[in-house]
TrEMBL record:
Domain HTH araC/xylS-type: 191-289
Keywords per UniProt: DNA-binding, Transcription, Transcription regulation
Pfam families: AraC_binding, HTH_18
Record's keyword annotation contains tRNA-binding: no
Name of the protein described by the UniProt record: AraC family transcriptional regulator
Gene Ontology MF term list: DNA-binding transcription factor activity; sequence-specific DNA binding
Amino acid sequence: MPDLKQRIVPAVGKRFPFRTSDVSDVIDEYLVCPHWHDQLEIIQVMKGRVLVTLDNQTFTAAENDIVYVNSGQIHSVKPLSDDARIIGLIFDEFFVTSFLEGFETKEIYNLFIKIRHRLCLFTPTHPLWEELNGSITTCYEENRKRHVCYEMAIKSHLYRIMTALVRYFDKQHYSSARRGDLSFLAFASIRPVLEYIEEHYAESIYLEELGRLVNKSPYHFSRLFKKSTGMTLPDYINMTRINMAKKWLMDNELSITEVAEKTGFCNPNYFGKVFKSITGFSPMDFRNEMTKQVLS
């Protein structure tokens, strides 16, 4: 089992929450050992081929490919060729969200960030690649040269990157629905449900109760939720609970059973199964490697 670490990025501070990385050295078979952090990250393969793992999803990326890593995702990169080299942009989510305005924009962005969707690999044939590639290059070079106002240049291109990603996500998942049987009013109406899940993830959550929040029958609410988020309700609830469990597992005074209970799982065995299916690690492996990081 590879080492798993929460990486606290010291260069990502309050004044300018952004840093870059350039990695070609291999350590224990990895360019990037398995870890996670609260920041968002964009990785680009500069040379060779690599094997990328995001939670329980593994795929190959080649030269010029771009990978989006969401906040809290366990990720790692292994070289598949001797010349493999990657660069990364790491930045706080607040860097982007602090200037969000407009109800619709906020709702779409919040869903984009919360959902572990498949929008993660962008090859040169992808319609977003050219725009993403240009902004990534600019951010990297601006941070390297650090000429006057480099922060403004970086920030503007991070906005371009996130705007392109969120618009594509919106177009793929919601635009056609808005033109059809799902109005934006219906889409926006799931906000109380998402807020309820965030506040009550440690409790039993019932389909009927959530349906009442949006005045829908269980059947119609389930369809609305899947259309709005791209996930089934149980999958979304489990994702929310596991994200919270990662934080609770850093407290070694809590047993695995107690963490399961604090995140809404009555059965610790089922908790372990769900945790591994989402993250690729068992709760105990996750905790043990976090403890090693603290002691090292």
